[in-house]
Task: inverse folding
């Protein structure tokens, strides 16, 4: 894995030198834009509309438009100075309960591995977080972007999840058509809770698949082999007028045996493995 950042995690006077690695990777299928007539890739150029010439990266700066058509500019060195030395430190200011953080705040997760000189301090922080069941809250600057961060342990490894600041979360009151004091019948609520109970299980990310990616891989395979692409017919969407009927029908559909579910899960994993091999 490629190191994307080096710095240190600190809390109090304790300093833990670490390297940062992405904990996730993009699983999308890459598609390029082609000229339809010749099936060749389209090229992009950085062109100045004023002089109509291509601009090299060394002549490009970042700018903020403070009013229409007027900019203040910053070069790379200025932005690095603004980031300051704190950009190399993940300074934990508070420790909180994981359950207190709403998932809406999370952005991207990174693994943190210790530098050679920081193994003992790294292990100490991991053990302390595990035994207290706490999450460290810090500010971090990566590539000139500042964000809130949650420092926690995942499977014995220190991790950092970047988070949005409170001011970046949109006010829910901006949403249209939110129900106000809507009454729910007790029988409907009991049925809904029963349905939730029937669908409740332990979270296993491996049992979920990207259905669109699977269909796209099938279509790519068909096109490569010169076969006609087979598209599933659109599912007919029926409007449900009676909520109780919908709840009862949903519970009835869940009466499949555990062996059926296990067979479906095994088939899904086998199919996913086949697609990965084919890709």
Result:
């Amino acid at each position: 894995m490629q190191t994307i950042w080096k710095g240190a995690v600190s809390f109090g006077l304790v300093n833990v030198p670490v390297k940062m690695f992405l904990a996730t990777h993009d699983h999308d299928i890459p598609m390029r834009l082609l000229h339809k007539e010749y099936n060749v890739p389209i090229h992009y150029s950085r062109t100045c509309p004023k002089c109509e010439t291509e601009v090299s990266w060394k002549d490009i700066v970042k700018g903020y438009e403070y009013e229409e058509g007027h900019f203040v500019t910053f070069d790379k060195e200025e932005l690095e100075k603004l980031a300051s030395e704190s950009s190399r430190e993940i300074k934990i200011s508070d420790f909180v309960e994981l359950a207190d953080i709403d998932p809406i705040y999370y952005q991207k997760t990174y693994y943190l591995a210790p530098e050679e000189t920081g193994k003992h301090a790294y292990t100490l922080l991991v053990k302390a977080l595990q035994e207290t069941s706490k999450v460290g809250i810090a500010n971090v600057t990566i590539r000139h972007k500042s964000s809130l961060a949650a420092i926690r342990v995942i499977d014995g490894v220190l991790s950092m999840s970047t988070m949005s600041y409170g001011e970046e979360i949109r006010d829910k009151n901006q949403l249209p058509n939110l129900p106000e004091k809507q009454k729910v019948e007790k029988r409907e609520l009991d049925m809904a809770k029963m349905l939730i109970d029937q669908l409740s299980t332990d979270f296993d990310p491996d049992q979920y698949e990207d259905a669109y990616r699977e269909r796209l891989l099938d279509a790519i395979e068909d096109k490569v082999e010169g076969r006609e692409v087979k598209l599933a017919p659109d599912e007919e969407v029926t409007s449900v007028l009676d909520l109780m009927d919908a709840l009862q029908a949903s519970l009835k559909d869940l009466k499949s045996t555990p062996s059926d579910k296990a067979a479906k899960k095994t088939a899904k994993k086998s199919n996913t493995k086949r697609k990965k091999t084919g890709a």
Notes: The first helix runs from residue 76 to 83.
